[in-house]
Amino acid sequence: LYGMPQDKLKGRLTALIEMAGLRGHEKQRAGSLSGAWRQRLALACAIVHEPPMLFLDEPTAGVDPLSRREFWEMIYNLAGQGVSVLATTHYMDEAEFCNIIGMMHNARLIALNDPDSLKAEMKGVLFEIECSDPGRADEVLRALPLISEAALHGVLLHVTVSEGRQQKEIVKALAAQGIRVERIEPVLPSLEDVFVSLVESEHHARLRAEIE
């Protein structure tokens, strides 16, 4: 297997079974394993020959949140051992584990940097809003010139403005539409906020170019 000597291969397989938490499942068919366990098995198979670089295409797609975190801990440990890991993911919380992140949109690379730098480069002030009607609030605020970007995060709303003092204007605009603001405060941007900001900026730039 991979041209490895039999004696070395045996010890390697034992170590990988332990790493993937598959002890006790050695005689079980791969097809009978859950999706999370099959992903663990696939990772173990991919590193049998101790490759210096590992390519993973959405390795945790369809896996529950806890298993996703455990899987990424294994990947992080591999990186700590000197393995270069290139992974694709749609989960922004997973991207936080990476040293360098490349953000893609419409098949183009729109950003490339480490997580902290990407967040620091985001322009404007980000507010998190808890209100009585987040869906309608999103529509109301998107129509305001002072709002650069707006995006729903579950029952919360994230909006970006150029200045922090515009907080009162946001509350006033929502109150005028009968929307009660329970909480509004500045927060640090997440990678999802950064991505939304980049995509929105690109969209606005394209619209301006079409008008001109």
Strand arrangement across the biggest beta sheet: 6-7-5-8
Order of helices and strands: HHEHEHEEHEHEEHEH
CATH superfamily membership of the largest domain, which one? P-loop containing nucleotide triphosphate hydrolases
Largest sheet: 4 strands, antiparallel
N- and C-termini, Cα separation: 61 Å
Helix % is 40-55%
* Count of alpha/pi helices: 8
Instruction: Report the principal-axis shape.
Output: elongated
The CATH architecture designation of the largest domain is 3-Layer(aba) Sandwich
Q: Provide mean pLDDT, rounded.
A: 88
* Number of structural units classed as domains: 2
Rg, alpha carbons: 23 Å
CATH class of the largest domain: Alpha Beta
Strand percent estimate: 15-25%
CATH topology of the largest domain: Rossmann fold
Return the structural class.
alpha+beta
In total, how many beta strands?
Answer: 8
Instruction: Give start-end ranges of low-pLDDT stretches.
Output: none
Task: Give me some keywords for this one.
212 residues, alpha+beta, Alpha-Beta Plaits, 2 domains, four-stranded antiparallel beta sheet, 8 helices, elongated
What does this structure look like?
By secondary structure, this protein is an alpha+beta fold. Helix content is 43%, strand content 22%. The protein is built from eight helices and eight strands. It has helices at 6-19, 35-46, 65-80, 92-95, 115-121, 134-142, 167-175, 191-211, and strands at residues 53-57, 84-88, 101-105, 108-113, 125-131, 147-153, 156-161, 181-186. The strands form three sheets. It has a four-stranded antiparallel beta sheet, with helices on both faces. Helix 3 links the parallel strand 1 and strand 2. It starts with 5 loop residues before the first helix and ends with a helix. 19% of the residues are buried. The mean pLDDT is 88.
